Amino acid sequence: MQSTGPTSQATGFRRSALAAALGILAVTVEAVAQEDGQAKPDQRDARHLFAGSADDVLSRLSDLRFDRKSVTTFDPFTGVRAELKKLNKTLQQAANLRIGFAWTSLYQNASASMGPNDAATSDFDFFGRWMPLRTRRTTGYVIFETQARNNFFTDITPNDLGAAIGSLWGTVNGFNSQSFHLKQIYWQQFLIRNTFTYRIGKLDQSNVFNINRLQSDNLYFLNAAFSDNPTMPYPENGFGADLTWRPDPMWYVSYGISNADSGSVDRTPDKFLTDVSWFTVAEMGVTPWFDGLGAGHYRLTAWYSDAKSASVHSDSAGFALSFDQSFGPKWIGFLRYGYGDGELTTTQQIVAGGFGIRRPIGDNDDFAGVGFSWGRPTDTSLREQMVAEGFYRLQWSPAIQITADAQLIINPSNAPDQDVVTVFGVRLRITF
Fold first, then answer.
1. Residues in CB range of 160: below 8 A, 6 or more apart
2. How far, rounded to the nearest angstrom, does the alpha carbon of residue 164 sit from its chain's CA centroid?
3. Which pTM was predicted?
4. What's the structural domain count of the chain?
5. Each residue of 346-362: pLDDT tens digit?
């Protein structure tokens, strides 16, 4: 006999809410898609048509440019980059293979803490794409990314600093300590002249669903309120798949599924099939291009997750809105709202928004941003938290970026004796 207890009723409610949210956006997308007079985006701009986050491997490869205007044109790695450029040219001609490297280090210091108040780590990434399939109607890639993260000269990493100061979410999204591992390896294929694209393998769905163009703690904001969505329990990088259908450059629909309890970095397809613990996510988006402004991305995402382990007794569901819009060649604004119902995250609701500006001073390829956020804890006995963050990223050389960052954690939820905690950070990023 099938159970009809409180848990089953709650699960049914969450599934109904998920379907209702998708139904609302389906009507919205259809209405926008039927509007006339909108200028379509450049078909050649693949990052607009299939916009992954700035941390997506294809985005990172396309961003490996060394013609940026900078303080100086010389750095100690000029020779290394020249040799890597020759190597990539050879690999491209011989095997349609392209590779890239990035080394990012971060130091943060907090004005108050329940433990250590400073944290540092370094992150080395090796990534690439191999294109064994290319015809007039389809293109297929093998995408891979390896990663190694190590803390240095501090007791904790920046990923641990948020908990140390009592913040509801992290002062960063990544920057933990992790030995060398294969972070991602998957097959991505573009079909029927980019009408469909799918990915399958070991992948990171946080690079595809509910993103915005300034979502990257490697390049832009550090605090997880802006570089992540704290209300969404994205699985670890385990075995999964997602599919995007874009019948027109103005809108798309995406669906993804992955193991909700990916846990370790060595999760395999056989465990994916037998654990029967799922994280599913669906998204509909509108991607208009406004004359005089530029590209816009407007997304509604709905998700559902089975309970991950015996310690988490109920399933969870939620939805999120994420918008970003260019305002001319320099300015980008963004806004996100997220809601999660269940035990899988410590944050029930969040509102985060702000703006970024390219080349704020002169012609140097610098970038600056300011963001504000508010969050409500899942535990209603805790107080609501707010965060303000500002950063300035200096393009020191074509391959070296130095970022100064400041955060105000206002009313940290897990530190009731603190009204404001300031967190200052310095990030160094070198790309090859």
1. 119, 176
2. 23
3. 0.86
4. 1
5. 999 999 999 999 999 98
